[in-house]
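Q: Here's a chain of 304 amino acids. Please give me its 3D structure as tokens.
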Amino acid sequence: MEKFEINILGCGAALPTPKRLSSSQVVNIREKLFMLDCAEGIQMALRKSRIAFPKIQAVFLTHLHGDHVFGLIGMLSTFGLLGRIQDLHIYGPHDLQRLFQPQIDYFCADSPFRIILHEIDTTTAQVIYEDRSVTISTLPLSHRVPCCGYLFCEKPTPRHIRRDMIDYYHIPTSQINNIKAGMDWTTEDGTLIPNDRLTTPPDPVRSYAYCTDTAYRPSLADLLQDVTCLYHEATFTSEHALLAKKTHHSTATQAAQIALASHAHQLILGHFSSRYPSEAPLLQEAQTLFPNTLLAEDGMKLRL
């Protein structure tokens, strides 16, 4: 299968700790790198993870709280020092331009690459990026400031060629792509060879949803049906449900409820409050409702 890898660089909440960096991830889809949030200390985390971070194509910010953006201007400056020339696109909520353009003008005035800021509407689900491999859509979330998650949907790959059948029927190389696309083959004597004898089905299409810094939002599940992997914040246990509601965050139980309602294949919990010496209670709470749940860890790599 083509690469679809999630690199979790930081999964803590607002306060960075020796154990956890604040929120940041890199999604690798067919060797194209996309960053989700950009926490303080991100450059060291990228180096530890051996990610070729100058190759990041775009950055997607969920919202403009400091624990999700404090690493951005430093990373942009480093890109310039490393001689990057490829454009970098940054997507984020309203005020992205007002907040970051002055910093870019001051700290990255001599940058050899263009930094292109895209302000997005966080209140609607819409496709904001698309190429031959993937579409990336926004997921409206509920936080104290404009905030959205992101849904990565892999595009279907072609069917797999059966080399033995191609050789048997002497199908020329020039027709391979047509066969992959679903074309049947007619032999010289007029016999029709159906495509399903020449190929095997394509790999299943995969998807990944990143939902962090949000109050419990049941309607979110409608946008996530059958998602392959869901990363959902679980800042608190249910013991602190009132605090979660007050701060517009979620409990582990609420994250599991979203996974259950969306028929997600896997749930990853993250954005843990530093009040918990161990995240085991969060995991136990979520697994009661949704057994296929994992705890995020800084440095974790997940291959979908």
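Q: Can you summarize the key feature?
A: The chain has a mean pLDDT of 95.
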